[in-house]
Design goal:
single chain; mainly alpha
Length: 97
Amino acid sequence: MPFKDPLTHADLRNIRERQPWNADVISLLWEVKRLRSVLLRAYQLSADLKRPAGLTGELYDDFMKGLREEPCVQERDGMATSLMEAPDRLRKGMAPR
């Protein structure tokens, strides 16, 4: 049985806003946040991990592909990219690059 599509940060925020009084929902959302942080740490460490040889190499490739497709990883990369982009207009006193 396949999994449902993963939830984005916006999806999780909408769930919280629909049921802010439900302590069970809040507890589950905190657990989701903790698990998302584990995925982000794994993604940060993935550049330093070496691909193993043999059958486990294919498992490693599948894991890395799945990790890159996680919404929390894509959202983090998108935010980092937007922060690194040059501003649309120059601020007063800034010279063009």
